[in-house]
Amino acid sequence: MVKISAxxxxxxxxxxxxxxxxxxxxxxxxxxxxxxxxxxxxxxxPSLTSMAVSVMPEYDQPRVLVSYRxxxxxxxxxxxxxxxxxxxxAEIAQVCSIIYRPDEEHLCQTYEAEPDGQYMxxxxxxxxxxxxxxxxxxxxxxxxxxxxxxxFWAPYPVQNLDLFxxxxxxxxxxxxxxxxxxxxxxxxxxxxSYVFTDxxxxxxxxxxxxxxxxxxxxxxxxxxxxxxxxxxxxxxxxIIISLGVVAAGVLAFVVxxxxxxxxxxxxxxxxxxxxxxxxxxxxxxxxxFCRHCGGPVRPESAFCHGCGQEVRPLPGGQE
Length: 319
Fold this sequence. Notes:
Blueprint: H1 2-9, H2 17-42, E1 48-57, E2 64-72, E3 80-87, E4 91-100, E5 104-108, E6 112-116, E7 119-126, E8 130-137, E9 144-152, E10 158-167, E11 172-177, E12 182-186, E13 189-199, E14 205-213, H3 226-230, H4 237-276, E15 288-289, E16 296-297
Parallel strand pairs: 1-10
Antiparallel strand pairs: 1-2, 2-8, 3-7, 4-5, 4-8, 6-7, 9-14, 10-13, 11-14, 12-13, 15-16
């Protein structure tokens, strides 16, 4: 051990070793800092770069139809649990994530609803950066004056919020508080719009609606619930996958059965050729061989168990 230590101590150390070691240490520190920044980016607080909210009183039902469409920041980690507050009497129609491949497709998610004070909170996992939620709330009946309010609670900070209110058909004295930024007539309806920026999660965006109608019939006919089933969006993806697996299993079983049957027939024929020689049946013994496939056949059998062909005894104990 002493000799080894002495030998190592006499090994000359190049002059460039010191600067190289410092360079390696610097690269390691930079890489570590980069990893730390990567983790910080992955753990970025979720936010919504844009949000579009549509409020449609008495559109296709005697209630208020609301839809949300929001886009998360690009560096958010997915899947992400989203918690959205809505009215306590809300009836949820859709909770989806949107993908493009190449057309827009809604991946509807399972969700959980729970009380949240005077509201209701809905939880689900967003699997794409774009989320879509649709629900109804309130109840309107008869003719006369309406006074409705709407509150939007942002699940995450929102950079840009576009809010649209669709005025019901045949409505009179329609007013909104606060006043909308713009109003346009399109496709027989009046559309009122707002633009908000830098929305926090602490305070809701509130709109009050007041108007009168001489009927409680919706402005548009009820939507066909079978339309969603037509494009397959109403069928859970897990069921589609399960059906595909079952179909593949049935096909594999059929192919396997046909292959095994043919393999057995050929194997029996080869065995008969090896025993009898050139496909001829041996003389004597307790049985005979099929003249079709060469397989062994019992004397009392009328059909070959290998190929299923009819076996007729010939004179001399042969087939």
